[in-house]
Amino acid sequence: MLCAISGEAPQVPVVSPKSGSVFEKRLIEAYIAENGKDPVNGEELSTDDLIEVKSQRVVRPRPPTLTSIPSLLNVFQEEWDALALETYTLRQTLAQTRQELSTALYQNDAAVRVIARLTKERDEARDALSKVSVGATRAAGGEAMQVDSNGLPDAVLSRVESTQAALSKTRRKRAVPEGWATSDAISTYKPAQSTEPLYPGGKALSVNASGELALVGSADGVVGVFSLSQKQVVQSLQANGPVTDAIWAGDKAVVASSTGSVKVFENGNEVADFSSHAGAATALALHPTGDIVASVGADKSYVLYDLTTNSVITQIFSDASLLSVKFHPDGHLIAAGGVDGQIKIFDVKNGSPAANFALSGPVKCLFFSENGTFMAAVAESSTVVSIWDLRSASEVKALETGNQIDSISWDYTGQFLLTGGPSGLTVQQYTKSTKSWSEPLRSAVPAAAVSWGVAAQSIVALNRDGGITVLGAQ
Predict the structure, then answer these.
(1) Class of the CATH domain delimited by 1-60
(2) Which of 60, 176, 307, 378 has the most CB atoms within 10 Å of its CB?
(3) CA distances from 21 to 41, 43, 77 (A)
(4) Domain boundaries, the chain
(5) How far apart, in whole angstroms, are the C-alpha atoms of residue 264 and residue 245?
(6) What is the rounded CA–CA span in Å between residue 322 and residue 198?
(7) Left, alpha or beta for 310 (phi > 0: left; psi -120 to 50: alpha)?
(8) Mean pLDDT, consecutive 10-residue segments, the chain of 474 residues?
(9) What torsion, rounded to 10 degrees, do the Cα atoms 26, 27, 33, 35 define?
């Protein structure tokens, strides 16, 4: 008969009616006083419930002092009893902790498996979505328009080819227009006028051909038509969500939003609303014909729209979400920058890949030089403009501006490359005769988007508070 706590023969044995175990009386009473439970099964137990067991008892002599051997043995016995009681409690706590840890590990393993399965299903759904061919979209009259992803309709193809033929013959021999800004004049540009914040969070800016009106997009879904001469907003257009880009197509305003919608406005009235993108429509570009617009989106596709019929022409999918887009000045190529750092060049006529260039990060903005030879590109949060030669498919210049670049714009002559960012704007000049670059202007005017005025005689900058600053010669 051994004690269930100490494992030794008890001097005063008692039995617990709850578990039927035998204990040393002093040990079980100490345990009950501290915990109030049976140490074996954890049921409520009091000292009154204990049943004494009749057995032959050996009476120990009472030690006279602690200096005697019997006294020291008694002290050691008491210490041993306390240690045995503590060890038993620790064993119980360890067993309980192991059980709780086992349960927690099982739950964690189950959660990890669920997350892995959901992630796989999400990736499969995204991949399937990127390969879906859009069968119809909304036009102004609400009729379903068929989407042809294999090529352009004959009428559109004819316009693209005739435009390319006309522009490619005259581009290299084109003289600088009379009255165009010179490097000396640009170097004197200072802020001539500034507005109060118009549309907070705005990052879309487009100046029309006359230099009179500017489209300003905001994060709250409103696009303002701002008169630069009157210095006031003359019209307000409503998008379906936060505006991601806005451009002029002749007298028409085309607006893209984060909801995937692309709207067309004429004289302040909405004339078309397209919803071809399955995610956000991130950028817009105007074809040299003046009546074809391209949009790119987070769904890895670019879409072409015919503004003469307010219809979707084609939708071409790539292998990554797209952030920026521009047409080649001849109109036969379209460049799209992706979140994977790749600039993908497509043939406009059939959507087939034509070339590919790589940057160090997501492609924030693109712009072709009017000479048709160079392409400028900027990676997100970068301070460098990469200049690519399309003939050799190589990077020929890396322009370090020292400031983060959020927007770029090449002038009509291909001489001046305008850059803008939160720390200011610069103008980089390319001199064809010496094939060299210089910097005629550096300004501290912050800009989320930049654009040239008429004949490069002014610079229009939009800051992140939605305010417009116009810089000109002093």
Answers:
(1) alpha beta
(2) 378
(3) 10, 13, 22
(4) 1-60, 184-473
(5) 12
(6) 28
(7) left
(8) 82 87 88 87 87 69 63 84 88 91 92 92 77 42 41 89 87 83 94 88 91 92 93 92 94 95 94 93 96 95 95 93 95 95 94 92 95 94 95 92 95 95 95 93 95 95 92 88
(9) -170
Measured CA to CA, the distance from residue 98 to residue 105 in angstroms comes to 10
CA-CA distance, 3 to 461, in Å (whole number)? Answer: 89
Look-up: residue for tokens 């920058």?
337
Q: Which CATH number fits domain 184-473: 3.30.470.20, 3.90.1150.10, 1.10.443.10, 2.130.10.10?
A: 2.130.10.10
Going edge to edge, which strands form the sheet with 363-368?
Answer: 363-368, 374-379, 384-389, 394-400
At a CB cut-off of 8 Å and minimum separation 6, what does 206 contact? 214, 215, 246, 247, 248, 451
Q: Is residue 81 classed as helix, strand or coil in its secondary structure?
A: helix
Length of the chain: 474
For residue 327, CA distances in Å to 122, 142, 380 come to: 33, 29, 20
pLDDT at site 135: 38
Do the Cβ atoms of 284 and 256 come closer than 8 Å? Answer: yes
pLDDT number for residue 240? 87
pLDDT at 150: 55
Q: For position 19, what pLDDT does the model report?
A: 85
